[in-house]
Amino acid sequence: MNAIILSIGNELTSGQTVDTNSAYLARRVAEFGIRPLAHWTVGDGRREIADALARASSSAEVVIVSGGLGPTADDQTRQAVAEALGCELELDERCLAGIEEFFRARGRVMGAANRIQAMAPRGAELLENKVGTAPGLYARIGDAAVFVVPGVPSEMEWMFEHQIAPRLSRNEGVIIHRTIHTFGAGESDVGTRILDLMQRTGPVLVGTTVAAGMVSIRIISRGKTSEQAQAQSEDVAGEVKRRLGELVVGEGAVSMAAATGELLRERRQTLATAESCTGGLLGQMITSAPGASDYYVGGVISYANRVKEQLLGVGAEAIASHGAVSEEVAAAMAQGARTLLASDWAISITGVAGPGGGSTEKPVGLVWMALAGPEGTKTSKTLWGGTREIIRLRASLNALNMLRLELRNQ
Amino acid sequence: MNAIILSIGNELTSGQTVDTNSAYLARRVAEFGIRPLAHWTVGDGRREIADALARASSSAEVVIVSGGLGPTADDQTRQAVAEALGCELELDERCLAGIEEFFRARGRVMGAANRIQAMAPRGAELLENKVGTAPGLYARIGDAAVFVVPGVPSEMEWMFEHQIAPRLSRNEGVIIHRTIHTFGAGESDVGTRILDLMQRTGPVLVGTTVAAGMVSIRIISRGKTSEQAQAQSEDVAGEVKRRLGELVVGEGAVSMAAATGELLRERRQTLATAESCTGGLLGQMITSAPGASDYYVGGVISYANRVKEQLLGVGAEAIASHGAVSEEVAAAMAQGARTLLASDWAISITGVAGPGGGSTEKPVGLVWMALAGPEGTKTSKTLWGGTREIIRLRASLNALNMLRLELRNQ
Question: DSSP state, A266?
Answer without folding.
Answer: H
